[in-house]
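tool=predict chain=A
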Amino acid sequence: MRKNTLSLRLALQMMQARSALLCGKPGAPGVASPGGLSGLDAVFEQAVKDLDMEQQESRVKMGKLMERARNRDAEAITELNALRSTTIDLYVRATSNFATSFFEEVTLQPNEQAVYIHTFRNQVNVRYIGQDGDARQVKAVKAQKQVFVDMRELTTDDVVYPIRDINLGTDVNAAAQATVDLSYDLANKVDVDAKTLVDASIGSFVTTGAKLNRTWIPNDRIITGNLPTTNLITLSDNGTGANQSNKFRLNVIRAIMQYCNTWGNIFGGPLKPTGTILVPAIDATDLAFEILPTGNTFNAVAQAVLQDYMQFDYMGYRWTMVPDVTIAQGACYPVLNRKLGDHYTKPSMDEEFVETDRRKNIETRAQMKVHNFAVPEPWRVGAMRVVYSSVYAGP
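tool=predict ok
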C-alpha cells in the first residue's frame, strides 16, 4: 500500500513538472502559455497536496485508534483487532500448503473436546439351515477405543518496537509490521507441523496386531493382495529411460491412479486424486523433458503438456503442479479427495498479548494460537508420497 502511494505521488509530481514545462511558469518573462493549458501544473500540484493530506489524516486516525486501544478502550481494541485479523488471515492462506491440503479445518467451541471412537463390526457367518429352522447364535459385541485429542498452545516470541517517533508521533508502521511478522511466523510454524505429520504418516499400513489399532479390517471376500500395503510409492524405473532419468514424469501420474484405483470402493466411495500435486520447486519443469517438440504429429496429451506443463488433462483428470520450496527434490505429494486428518482450532482462545511501557517508549507484542492436528490410523490411506528420483534423500 505504501509503495503504491509513493508511486502515485511520484507520478503526480512528474505530471506537474511536465505541465509546467509545456505551459510555462506563470509570470515568467518571454514565456507564453498555450491557451487551454495554462495553470494545469497547479492542478497536479494540488493533487499532490491532497494526497499528502489524506495520508496524514489516515495516520493521525490510526494513531488515535491505537492510543485508545492502549488505554483499554474495548471498542477501539475490537476495531484494531478486526483490522489485524484480515492481515493474519491473508498470511495463513497465502503461505500454507500442507495444512490446508491434507487436513480438514475443525473449529471447536471453548468447551468442546475432540475425540475419535475407533470401532469395527464383527462379520456374521451366513449358512443354509435345515427344515427345523435351527441356526447358530453369536453374541453381538462391538469393540471400541476412544482417542482424545488434547489442544496445544503455540506461542511466538515477544517482538519489541518503539511506540512513537518524537517527530512523527505514534509509530503506526512499527506496530503493523510487528503484527504481520508474528502472523506470518505463526502460520509458517503451523504448516511446518502439518508437513511433519504428513511425512510421519507415510509408510507401511498396520494390518496385524490388535484389531482396533489396524489401518483396516478386511471382509473375508477381499483378496488382501489386491490392496496397497503402503502409501509410499517408489517408481522402479528411476535412473533409466530416455529423457526421463530422475525427473518428474507422466509415470508419476500413472502411479497415483494405480494407488487410488487399487482400493476399489471399500471405503464406501472411490479414493480419487483431486489433480493437485505438490512438487519440489526445482522439479516443476521436469515434464518439459519428457515431451520433445519434434516431428509433425502430436497426441493430445503431448500437445497439452507442450502448451502448459503446469496444468494439463490426462487419464480423465486435470492435473495442476504446485511448486513448493519446502519439499526435498525427487518426491511429490498428490492431494487426494480424502483428508489425512483434522486440524482442530479454538479461535475464541487465540490471543494477542500487548504490553506497553510508555516511559521506555517500547511496546512488546506476542501471539498465541490454540490448536492441534490429529491423524486417525485408518485415514492414512488418504495421503501418499511418490518418489520418482534416486536423488531423494528424505523429508
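Residues 40-70 form the longest helix (31 residues). Residues 63-110+154-395 form a domain with the phage-related protein like fold fold (CATH 3.90.1690).
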